[in-house]
C-alpha cells in the first residue's frame, strides 16, 4: 500500500526544502517525523506537514481497503521538491528606478509505503 501527499505553492525556496527532504528520504515515517520536529531550519515545518498528510492518507486508504494500519510499518518511499511559481515583486528606488524581487515557491511531494513483508 502506498499513499501520497503534495503541498503546492509553499513559500520556501526549493533549495532549502530539498535539504530537509534529503534528510528523511528512505527512513521510517516515525523516525522522519522526529528528525523534522527537531530540525532548526524553517523549511522543516512544511515538509513535516506534508509527511503527516501522507501518513493520514495511508490511514484512510487502509481503512477503505479493510486492511490493518500500522504506522510503524510505513517508510518514505519517495520524496522530492519541484520549483513552483515565482512571485514577482517590485521595490521603488530613487530616480524612478525599481528593484525586482523574485519570491520563489516550492511543490513538495512525499510518498509513503508499507514494507512488503509487513502484514
From TrEMBL:
InterPro entries per the UniProt record, alphabetical: Ribosomal_uL22, Ribosomal_uL22_bac/chlpt-type, Ribosomal_uL22_bac/org-type, Ribosomal_uL22_CS, Ribosomal_uL22_sf
Record keywords, A-Z: Ribonucleoprotein, Ribosomal protein, RNA-binding, rRNA-binding
GO biological process terms, semicolon-separated: translation
GO cellular component, one term: cytosolic large ribosomal subunit
Coiled-coil regions, chain positions: none
GO molecular function: rRNA binding; structural constituent of ribosome
Purpose: The globular domain of the protein is located near the polypeptide exit tunnel on the outside of the subunit, while an extended beta-hairpin is found that lines the wall of the exit tunnel in the center of the 70S ribosome.
Quaternary data: Part of the 50S ribosomal subunit.
Family assignment from sequence similarity: Belongs to the universal ribosomal protein uL22 family.
The protein's name in its UniProt record: Large ribosomal subunit protein uL22
